[in-house]
């Protein structure tokens, strides 16, 4: 049974949740501005509860089982985080209240800035960006402005490895800069010769994802950074894969000039079915003045006091604000809670076990699926979802068959440099049993691919719907309910 | 895969046909089969003056978008508006009903530099082998 | 180890299966001089301890929900029906990812389809996307859409100076590398006609806001036609307050090309500024130049109805440097909250909420206008926010409201001098359904008690 649309449950005249009575005298409404009709649904509260509860049950989620989407870091979302963010003294604060009346909120923001500086090895952090891609745009604009300020207007090029997330080139274009793609070598590293051939006085910087989207740590990290710095360029770190590095290596120590963090990946805040995320940006000392503001600072006059006082501050050469108000505060409270519960050791252990889990799962499946780069991986790995002795089976079929077994598929068809890619990131919060279960399913499916490929082609059968007609959706778009 | 021996080709999988002093342009049958089900075609505006090698549009499937380039320069005199509602014409008849633009060419000499069917066939074979 | 389920025995088995001895062996490719840095983070706390600490920190903030509050300026204290948090607290919704695997994401996908439909109904537009980060970034994406509609050939945009100052700033930030010319100035008294005159055939779009940042309703009847004619197709983008649309004519009704705004009033709570929700709608002819995700209806191989993300070739994961935007994560859960809010209140409830806002704001304006030294600027109709000329700087009055009245703290309105120097001593007052008559009377009484002489002595 399909769940009808909320509009289809509507009955003319049915009242929903009841607003209060008006306790002031009515004023004349501005006749010239009034709308004729408002075609929203007319449903009762119980209709709403049942409808959205039934919809929720059509979803897969981390709370149901393993969700090893590569580059997405689908780790457990601790329940205490949700309680923390909903505390009335956080959830009920207006962003434009006087600073004296929001000192608890500013303390949380200041602390998260400090923690991210420490974990990333940076001189300053702005919490303003709302998501990873938003952090990238911020970072690229910072690099651009830095060069302009140094009289270097000829720099117009960002180098992007071919394994990068699509957001890297997209953020570059939005900044008015051009993209030059750098190929990978046979071990999955950045091709150093190709990089050397492209560095010149036009380079704004390199966008560097480390470990990269193959889950591999760049074996020439220092050389890559030195080559780019050597031409006067800056190095942007894409922090999407920080779950492999927190507590293991501080990108700032290695010479990364600017990087975004994904609080919704590394720091356990939920993905919410697509968002909200949070993409704070950390920078080295020479870029501090360019951060989007305002950021929170400790009032120097109160630094020694028992009750330190926090205040907003706009960096002097800022690229400008990237969002209204201060940042995704509710997400920042969750990340604060998580970091405080882990401490230094916990942060490192999370990364270690994320990498342990990925390598263990890889060790269990690598005989069954072609492995394009056979190295110790970091928090994720990529195999090919195409077997020599099952030529008609594709990564998509394997992904859909995993659904039949009650688990979530990995990221598929990314990174683009591996044909039929299956990109698997189990995260540290999965147990050995959970990983063994997933490995067993993958091995069973590899076997099915050879002997009963029709099961894969027909998958999923054990889901709320079967494969959907995306061509029809794109050729004749139906993007809203028609009354 | 169909080939049309009456047209000339670009290595980037576009074709050009001479029709009464004008040039009709589309993408090849090989290109449409690689993209699979085409869901949208973006075309230039009539009157646009474009040079050989300029991007003149985008052909989209569900999961990919391919830029398409002009085999010859000229002024756009017509675009195939049927593709707005029925982009699948490119899948069904790449060399015929799936045409994209009609140009008044700037320099007919550019015709000679285009690949003939035999040369284009080689390009396709090399690409196939690389996969 | 918190949140890590491994036992010592399991860890050893796993390392053995990998073929290494120690966890450190997995990090040999990380340069040794950088490996295992000392991190100076606070000692870890248990769940009980961190919650106790957080409760203390939260108690240091003044909670606007339980304090008489007259502050708006882009974020509003509204009542959120209980059912909203009930739905967004379902783990099936909030612990899911972007619905890339449609077969096991029908809940999220259908909810987004309903959200898109409701935003279209609310704004009177033809197509809405699945959300932006907030109203400000939605405004910046409107500029980029207009730029793309004209194939990057038009680089001028006109922004009304009464569009929210943060939105104007974010537009400047987003477009700084695109070589755009942004005009419109920052004088809030600039008449609309003068802005329309700035539109020419090089202008990609005109952005106006109604109610504007000063709370005034802007009559946009016929403006779209003028803008289209003057600019040979220039787009009209309108920033709107979604609650006002319970009562007021939607942008689609007067021919706008893009309607957008801050969705926070739709049941999201204040949250010290985020996460909020940028809603965004346009006409179907521009759907392919729009940023963000779109969900469409289709069928599965058995003919059963289902929902998928569609027109994805506009997006960064396919189109990379030629994408319409870099947006990936959006505000999905906040869009769900807004959907449940609009469903729960429905056709009648949203209108009632809008009327409550209107009547209470007008009642407040009438009582404040009677006070000595305070004048409500009433030259234009308003919705739930209006400007009061005060006898002293707004900061002084707000400090007085917070600290110097017996028994109660009041959060006063927004100091307009922060954004418009000529509006010194002008307070932007917001009144919603949450302000009882008692609160409004208390506020007026407190303003009336402000010692005007003290205020003036500073000048």
Task: Give a structural overview.
The complex is a heterotrimer of chains A (483), B (131) and C (459). Chain A is an alpha/beta fold and 483 residues long. Chain A is built from 13 helices and 12 strands. In chain A, the strands form 3 sheets. A 7-stranded mixed sheet of chain A has the order 1-7-6-5-4-2-3, sandwiched between helices. In chain A, strands 10-12-11 form a 3-stranded antiparallel sheet, with helices on one face. In chain A, strands 8-9 form a two-stranded antiparallel ribbon. In chain A, α8 links the parallel β4 and β5 (234-239). The mean pLDDT of chain A is 97. With 131 residues, chain B is α+β, with helices and mostly antiparallel strands. Helices cover 22% and strands 31% of the residues of chain B. In chain B, 38% of the residues are buried. Chain C has 14 helices and 13 strands. Chain C has helices spanning 8-18, 47-59, 82-88, 91-94, 106-123, 135-149, 165-175, 192-197, 223-230, 316-319, 332-369, 394-403, 437-448, 452-457; strands spanning 127-128, 156-159, 181-183, 203-210, 235-240, 258-262, 278-282, 295-299, 305-309, 375-376, 385-389, 414-415, 426-430. In chain C, strands 1-7-6-5-4-2-3 form a 7-stranded mixed sheet, with helices on both faces. Chain C has a 4-stranded antiparallel sheet with strand order 10-11-13-12, covered by helices on one side. Chain C has a two-stranded antiparallel sheet with strand order 8-9. In chain C, α3 packs antiparallel against α11. The N and C termini of chain C lie far apart (61 Å). Chains A and C meet through α1, α2, α3, α4 and α5 of A and α1, α2, α3, α4 and α5 of C.
């Amino acid at each position: 049974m399909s769940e009808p649309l909320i509009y289809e449950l509507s009955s003319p005249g049915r009242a929903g949740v009841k607003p209060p009575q008006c306790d002031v005298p009515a004023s004349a409404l501005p006749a010239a501005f009034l709308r004729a009709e408002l075609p929203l649904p007319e449903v009762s509260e119980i209709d709403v509860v049942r409808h959205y509860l039934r919809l929720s049950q059509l979803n897969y989620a981390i709370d149901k089982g393993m969700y090893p989407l590569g580059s997405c870091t689908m780790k457990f979302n601790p329940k205490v985080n949700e309680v923390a963010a909903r505390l009335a003294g956080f959830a009920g604060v207006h962003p434009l209240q006087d600073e004296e009346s929001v000192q608890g909120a500013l303390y949380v923001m200041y602390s998260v800035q400090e923690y991210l500086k420490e974990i990333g090895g940076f001189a300053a952090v702005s919490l303003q960006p709302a998501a990873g891609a938003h952090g990238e745009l911020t970072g690229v604009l910072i690099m651009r402005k830095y060069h302009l300020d140094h009289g270097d207007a000829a720099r117009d090029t960002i180098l992007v490895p071919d394994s990068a997330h699509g957001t890297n080139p997209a953020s570059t274009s939005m900044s008015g800069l051009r993209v030059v793609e750098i190929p990978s070598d046979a071990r999955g590293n950045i091709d150093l010769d190709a990089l050397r051939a492209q560095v010149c006085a036009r380079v704004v910087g390199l966008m560097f994802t480390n470990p990269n989207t193959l889950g591999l740590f760049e074996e020439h990290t220092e050389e890559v950074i030195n080559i780019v710095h050597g031409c006067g360029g800056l190095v942007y770190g894409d922090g999407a894969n920080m779950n492999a590095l927190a507590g293991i290596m501080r990108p700032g120590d290695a010479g990364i000039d600017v990087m975004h963090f994904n609080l919704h990946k590394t720091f356990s805040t939920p993905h919410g079915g697509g968002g909200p995320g949070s993409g704070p940006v950390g920078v080295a000392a020479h870029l501090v003045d360019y951060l989007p503001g305002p950021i929170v600072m400790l009032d120097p006059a109160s630094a020694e006091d028992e009750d330190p006082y926090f205040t907003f501050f706009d960096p002097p050469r800022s690229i400008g604000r990237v969002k209204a108000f201060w940042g995704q505060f509710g997400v920042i409270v969750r990340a604060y809670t998580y970091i405080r519960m882990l401490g230094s050791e916990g942060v490192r252990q999370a990364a270690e076990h994320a990498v342990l889990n990925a390598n263990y799962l890889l060790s269990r499946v690598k005989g069954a699926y072609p492995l394009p780069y056979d190295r110790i991986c970091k928090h994720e790995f990529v195999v090919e979802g195409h077997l020599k002795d099952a030529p008609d089976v594709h990564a998509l079929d394997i992904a859909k068959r995993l659904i039949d077994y009650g688990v979530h598929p990995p990221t598929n068809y990314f990174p683009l440099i591996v044909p039929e890619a299956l990109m698997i990131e189990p995260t540290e919060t999965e147990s050995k049993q959970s990983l063994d279960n997933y490995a067993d399913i993958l091995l069973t499916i590899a076997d099915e691919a050879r002997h009963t490929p029709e099961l894969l082609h027909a998958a999923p059968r054990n889901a709320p719907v079967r494969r959907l007609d995306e061509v029809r959706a794109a050729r004749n778009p139906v993007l809203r309910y028609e009354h | 895969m169909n080939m049309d021996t009456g047209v000339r080709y670009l290595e980037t999988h576009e074709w050009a046909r001479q029709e009464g002093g004008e040039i009709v342009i589309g993408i090849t049958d090989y290109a449409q089969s690689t993209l699979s089900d085409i869901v949208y075609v973006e075309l230039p505006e009539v009157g646009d003056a474009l040079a050989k090698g300029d991007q003149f549009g985008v052909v989209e499937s569900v999961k990919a978008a391919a830029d398409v380039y002009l085999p010859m320069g000229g002024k756009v005199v017509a675009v195939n508006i049927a593709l707005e509602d029925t982009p699948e014409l490119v899948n069904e008849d790449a060399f015929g009903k799936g045409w994209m633009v009609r140009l008044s060419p700037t320099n007919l000499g550019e015709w000679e530099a285009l690949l003939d069917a035999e040369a284009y066939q080689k390009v396709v074979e090399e690409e196939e082998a690389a996969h | 180890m918190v949140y890590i389920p491994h036992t010592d025995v399991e860890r050893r088995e796993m390392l053995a299966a990998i073929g290494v001895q120690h966890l450190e062996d997995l990090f040999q490719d990380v340069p040794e001089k950088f490996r295992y840095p000392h991190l100076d983070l606070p000692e870890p706390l248990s769940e009980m301890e961190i919650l106790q600490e957080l409760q203390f920190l939260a108690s240091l903030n003044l909670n606007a929900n339980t304090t008489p509050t007259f502050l708006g300026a882009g974020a509003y204290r509204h009542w959120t029906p209980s059912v909203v948090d009930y739905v967004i607290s379902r783990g099936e919704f909030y612990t899911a990812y972007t619905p890339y695997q449609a077969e096991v994401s029908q809940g999220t996908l259908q909810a987004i389809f309903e959200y898109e439909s409701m935003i279209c109904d609310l704004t009177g537009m033809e197509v809405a996307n699945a959300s932006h980060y907030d109203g400000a970034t939605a405004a910046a994406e409107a500029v980029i859409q207009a730029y793309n509609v004209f194939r990057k050939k038009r680089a001028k945009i006109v922004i009304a100076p009464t569009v929210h100052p943060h939105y104007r700033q974010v537009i400047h930030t987003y477009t700084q590398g695109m070589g755009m010319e942004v005009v419109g100035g920052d004088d809030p008294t600039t008449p609309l006609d003068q802005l329309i005159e700035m539109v020419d055939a090089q202008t990609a779009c005109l952005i106006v806001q109604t109610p504007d940042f000063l709370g005034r309703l802007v009559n946009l009847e016929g403006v779209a036609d003028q803008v289209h004619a003057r600019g040979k197709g220039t787009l009209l983008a309108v920033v709107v307050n979604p609650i006002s649309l319970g009562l007021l004519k939607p942008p689609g009704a007067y021919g706008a090309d893009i309607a957008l705004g801050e969705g926070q009033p739709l049941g999201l709570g204040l949250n010290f500024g985020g996460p909020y929700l940028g809603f965004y709608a346009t006409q179907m002819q521009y759907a392919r130049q729009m940023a963000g995700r779109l969900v469409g209806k289709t069928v599965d191989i058995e003919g059963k109805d289902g929902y998928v993300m569609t027109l994805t070739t506009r997006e960064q994961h396919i189109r990379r440097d030629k994408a319409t935007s870099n947006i990936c994560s959006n505000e999905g859960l906040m869009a769900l909250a807004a959907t449940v809010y609009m469903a729960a209140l429905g056709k009648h409830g949203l209108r009632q909420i809008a009327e409550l806002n209107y009547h209470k704001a007008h009642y407040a304006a009438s009582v404040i206008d009677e006070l000595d030294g305070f004048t409500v600027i009433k030259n234009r109709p308003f919705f739930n926010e209006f400007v009061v000329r005060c006898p002293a700087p707004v900061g002084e009055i707000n400090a007085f409201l917070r600290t110097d009245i017996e028994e109660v703290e009041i959060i006063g309105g927004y100091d307009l001098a922060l954004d418009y120097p000529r509006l010194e001593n002008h307070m932007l007052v917001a009144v919603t359904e949450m302000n009882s008559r008692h609160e409004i009377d208390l506020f007026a009484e407190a303003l009336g008690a402000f010692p005007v002489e003290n205020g003036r002595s500073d000048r």
